[in-house]
Write a structure and sequence with these properties.
Keywords: Membrane, Transmembrane, Transmembrane helix. It contains 15 helices and no strands. By secondary structure, it is an all-alpha fold.
């Protein structure tokens, strides 16, 4: 008698899609961290001041930074360890360098996104922006300490869906709106010496600081504790989040270009005034009745960014300390670092006294000036002998990486000359 052969039933398209969606999370969390100040502020402002002229720059920046962001998902999926473990394998000095720059970025970025969240809260709660920033940071800490990654994963997916649908709807309505450009209006050129600072700031957080790749790496490890995530699923999740950030950056630029460009209006540096302008931008195309709905969606968007920023930076700092000191990971150590980063971020907010745009300009510029080092660390890791040959970057990714690092280094040198020598 011949043995019976048992063939496993093929999965339906719905079952495959469901498994793929359940495997998503780290990439969407990365998108939530990215779609904050760089999109709500930098992209919208770029469109408002220069129309569509910087659209290709946004796409180019995302393309040139892609290999450095992809390192987080690809390295962890291939090795089962984080990028920080990889830095340590390269040499203790590399991990120390990353940790110092990451600590500076953690405090500055936390201050920037917390102040923007507080500015949007002023549309609902008539309290000083400093006090609202404190409330935002305490709420973020409470969510992270009590809910951990599982809650963060679920909440972020809902917020990202709401934000994407609402923003795309606003852009679609804006395309059909009557043009506000006056006859004979000539758009100012962004390619002037005076605008170098803005260009560098915009590119610094577009789509996000490169150290976010380390967060993606750690979030992927957390996701793998809950379920099996294959390398293919991890890369799909990352690409989904990365492409979403690039598309929405263009959508936010389009809103600024179609609703504010040519109107003669400029964004206020004050946090509360800026938030009011931002909400007005949406309500002009969606209708005044949508004002509070849009304010709520924008608030949820930037609040999710604040939560992911506090969580991501704190996780990387905690793991850095653990690896450098040879200690075991502990929730207590992570919570202490979260509290310390939030407290120092609040100190920076108090220093800037509610001046949102100058603070964000400073944070984004700092991100751009340190980006080349983070990019080099990730490239070195993805081409090292510690990685299996099949997992290393091939010729195309190596070439794109070198072009990306040349661009980052070139603009950093240009900014230094513009700021201190020109």
């Amino acid at each position: 008698m011949e043995p019976l052969s048992v063939t496993a039933p093929k999965s339906t398209l719905w079952q495959q899609s469901t498994r793929l969606f359940r495997a998503t999370g780290p990439g969407l969390l990365m998108a939530a961290a990215a779609i904050g100040a760089s999109h709500l502020v930098a992209s919208t402002r770029a469109g408002a001041e220069f129309g569509w002229q910087l659209a290709w720059v946004i796409l180019l920046v995302n393309l040139l930074k892609y290999p450095f962001f992809a390192a987080g998902a690809r390295y962890t999926a291939a090795t089962g360890e984080s990028l920080l473990h990889g830095y340590q394998r390269q040499g203790r000095g590399y991990l120390i360098l990353f940790s110092i720059l990451n600590a500076l970025a953690a405090v500055a970025s936390t201050a920037g996104v917390a102040m923007l969240t507080a500015a949007l809260l002023t549309q609902f709660i008539p309290l000083p922006i400093d006090l609202l920033a404190l409330i935002v940071l305490l709420a973020s800490l409470l969510l992270l300490v009590l809910g951990h990654y599982r809650v963060l994963d679920k909440v972020t997916k809902v917020i990202m869906l709401c934000l994407t649908v609402t923003t795309l709807s606003a852009a679609a309505l804006a395309f059909n709106a009557e043009s506000i450009l006056t006859p004979g209006f000539v758009s100012p050129s962004p390619w002037q010496w005076a605008h170098v600072g803005f260009l560098v700031a915009m590119m610094g957080w577009m789509p996000a600081p490169i150290e976010v790749s380390c967060w993606n790496s750690l979030w992927l490890l957390e996701k793998q504790k809950q379920q099996l995530v294959t390398p293919k699923q991890a890369l799909f999740d990352f690409n989904l989040g990365f492409i979403t950030t690039a598309v929405l950056a263009l959508v936010f630029l389009s809103l600024g270009a179609m609703v504010m460009h040519g109107s003669g209006g400029h964004f206020f540096p004050s946090g509360a005034k800026f938030a009011e302008q931002l909400i007005q931008l949406y309500s002009q195309v969606l209708g005044e009745g949508s004002r509070y709905l849009i304010a709520l969606v924008a608030l949820l968007c930037i609040f999710s960014t604040t939560v992911t920023v506090v969580d991501g930076y704190s996780r990387t700092l905690a793991l850095s300390v653990q690896l450098l000191r040879g200690e075991e990971a502990s929730e207590r150590g992570l919570n202490i670092i979260m509290l310390l980063v939030s407290a120092l971020g609040l100190g920076i907010i108090l220093f800037f006294k509610g001046a949102l745009l100058p603070l964000l300009q400073f944070v984004m510029t700092l991100a751009f000036m340190t980006t080349i080092i983070f990019a080099w660390l990730n490239y070195r890791l993805m081409t090292s002998d510690n990685l299996a040959p099949s997992a290393r970057y091939g010729l195309a990714m190596r070439l794109l990486s070198w072009i990306g690092m040349a661009y980052l280094l070139g603009f950093a040198a240009l900014f230094i000359y513009w700021k201190w020598l020109g």
